[in-house]
Protein 1
Amino acid sequence: MSRTVKRKSPSPAAVGGSPAAVGGLASRVLEAARTKGTFTVADIGDALNVQAHKDLVPIRRVVFALKKRNEIKRVCRGTYKYQGRDKRRTLMDKIWHLVRSHRHFSTDDIERLSGAARNTVTEYLRCLAEYGYLTKSGRSRWRLVKDPGPKTPVNTAKCKRLKAIREKRTKQ
């Protein structure tokens, strides 16, 4: 009777933690990937002056972790391309995503799900309504009327009233 051993994929901590935060192998691999653009593990090994084939194993683990974090993309077997880190989503992005997914919602729903302050949510929803994306259907109920797609509408982020609220908060 043979035993099957499941292999675990290496965690970022196992290969040196966050590549950006650690000054070890992971950050050197990341820097080499940035420089090369499109690369193989052997290319990274050459850039780091790795001589032995067995020394490429930790580099493979780092490449796997970076792929898992979407910092690099596999082009074809054994070849990868550096694509950088995704931008962090802003509150406006979160609110817009929730508006699109719910279609008909209350201000309380969006406030609770996004984690944003009520005033921020209300003002952003008003901005969206001014640009014709939403209509109000009740006291604090809203409905999505025009859906331009997943990208947060650009003009709404610059809404004067929302900016005034933020400035007021920072002064306090």
Protein 2
Amino acid sequence: MDIVHALGVAQQQQKGYSHMAGPRLQHASMLIPTGTQDAVRAFYGEVLGLEEKQPPRSLAHLHLVWFAAGEGELELHFLPGPTGPDETDQRHICLVVEDLEAYRRRLTEAGVAILPAEPIPHRPRFFCLDPFGNRLEFTAIQGDYREAP
């Protein structure tokens, strides 16, 4: 084992991540216009059903909104700022859901336009924009796309 790998393992063990083989995603941050935190809560909390998390008090001056977004400490962070995302931007986050059609209905009923997506075998999916212009993908994983004909 080289010294770089040994140091990485030691750091992971110190932090309680001894089961980790390498880096893992902890959070994704998305831009929102200043003053829209309640709208973020309405869309991500009420429409999508994500659970809000309290950001650390040391960041209170940033007026962030955080949501749990998976197992462990996986989170979505929303950062207010003077400019929002560009609606033509293709960067996005992807949420895996068990019932893709239920989310399509839920979003449509909330007045959100569903955007088409190029097909991926065993991964039905669609896109939408949140009320702030952030692109979201929703998918259901039904098998390994590499095993498709």
Protein 3
Amino acid sequence: MVIAETLMGVQLVRSAIKGIKDVINTCEDVSEIAHHIDNVFQGEEQVNRRIAAKKKKQQKKGQWYSFIASRLKSDDEGDGTSIQEIAQELIEKKQIEQQRTALAHLLNRRFGADTWSSIMKIRFERIEKLKEKRKAALQRAKEEAWERKRFWKKTGEESGKLLIVLGVIVGMYYYISYACKGCI
């Protein structure tokens, strides 16, 4: 399964590069091949996510898991230290890097010397803006939650005070009616 996921990411990058090579000479501007460029980035992100998930999963394994696995010798997923896994990760990254370099050369040759660097710069700026926007939205959500919590706490306190005042008024009424022997 892991190999299939990896091949999907690498194959996505390769097919995108092949698509770009097929239409690079006939396209008018970069927008005609933009979906292929998106596929390159998506394939790279798939591979990076898979590697990050694998590392995160390995970090979750504690001492108890290591002890059991060493006793049972049934760790069929691998622990990330085998030569095969390390070589596979490294080769995948190198292949994607080569494909991106080839893409940069194709675009720069067809549309001008700084096309790829402009694309990467704009992409980086948009990603940073998106991160800032998400961070601001998260901060707003935290502030709204805090305000809501404060509102309900204040409402509870004031409701409690109202109940105490009503209790005192009712108690005074019954005391006066008892002391007055039915005057009220």
Protein 4
Amino acid sequence: MLRLHITGVGDAFTERYHNASFCIEEPQSGIRLQIDCPPAFPRVLADYRRGRREGSATAPGHDLGIDNIDALLLTHLHGDHCGGTEAYLYMRRFLLGRKPTLLGAPEVLDALWPTRLAGGMERLLQSVPTWDAAALHERSQRTPGEPTDDRDLLRDPGGPIHALGLLDYCERQDLLPGVTRLGPLRIERRFTRHHIPTTAIRVSLDGRARPLFAYSADTAFDPDLIDWLSVADLVIHETNYGTHTPLSSLLLLPPELRARMRLIHYPDALSPADCPIACLHEGQLVELP
């Protein structure tokens, strides 16, 4: 069986929710694979834990955190889907000392470091000058000198600089055509109709012929993609405005498929309680036997 911990359901412009994301858990192996990593990711997980603990202190997902999410899959590089990756990788390196596994299509991951992460993560200042009380007192007795050019600090910040790359922070596992394995998980990917390279996924377990669930990721309405997704027991599909999938298009699908569908990445204006297709909710636990 699989558990899906729903950590966010909103779109890029939401003022009500966290951005769309969820964590896959296979309880027998203990594997937890996060699907997309929205901004303020530590807060996203803290809010999920708080909601789970309201029901029971030991409810599944009560402990969901960066320390036990050892793998992250990025569907694409829009900020609402990858904006928390820097914090996730920093916490894994500096607080935990354990590299996670980063998964994604090469067309997605190849651009992650140069376009999203390098500006903030490629230079590590390994040490800085330290000051004790005696040194501060001695400094206070000196006659102030001429102002210095503060740009000198860019050339010499006071300690050695270490250059880093993506693989200093994580292991990389590419999603290629066919099946990618992560423990007992079998992951397939398919590109969607979106502004930048974006992958839908299907997830199966060893010994199961049919995928337990499929996720559209961001996409325009695409009947071919929906055919690919629909072989799964559960279909998680986005809906939104613009070059996304209109709810009106999803309502044209067969009733049997709509009954197996759950919506995510929906706009704030959509009322989940009144939606004719069931919506996922933040803090929800979905169990797939």
